[in-house]
Amino acid sequence: MTATLNLAPNLDAPDAFYEALIEAHRDLTPEQSHRLNARLILLLANHVGDLAVLREALAQARAGLAAA
Predict the structure, then answer these.
(1) Are 56 and 5 in contact (CB under 8 A)?
(2) What CA–CA distances, in Å, run from 63 to 5, 9, 26, 67?
(3) Most buried among 2, 16, 41, 46, by the most CB within 10 A?
(4) Is residue 33 classed exposed, middle or buried when 0-12, 13-18 and 19+ CB atoms within 10 A define those classes?
(5) pLDDT reported for residue 67
(6) pLDDT band (50, 70, 90) for residue 64
(7) pLDDT value at position 1?
(8) With 90 as the cut, is the pLDDT of residue 12 above it?
């Protein structure tokens, strides 16, 4: 069974997550910050595990860049 990407709000504490994300980047160089993002993406992609969902997320993220 293939799942679909959940685009509805789904974080228990979005502000707390945002704060933790900002804190994780504190005092990092731009290169270290990019590496942290890449590692986080790979960890979360592994957690999701469904290639179709991951492809949908990539497409959504890229489409958001074109619109901005």
Answers:
(1) yes
(2) 14, 19, 28, 6
(3) 41
(4) middle
(5) 62
(6) confident
(7) 59
(8) yes
Rg of the chain in Å (alpha carbons): 14
| Cα–Cα distance list, 29 to 17, 25, 33 (Å) | 21, 9, 6
Counted residue by residue, the chain has a size of 68
pLDDT band of residue 68 (cuts 50, 70, 90) is low
pTM to 2 decimals?
0.86
Q: Which residue has the tokens 């900002």?
A: 22
Identify the residue whose tokens are 């990092």.
Answer: 28
Return the closest-CA partner of residue 42 out of 62, 23, 57, 27. Answer: 57
Rounded CA separation 48/57 (Å): 11
Supply 37's token pair: 């993002």
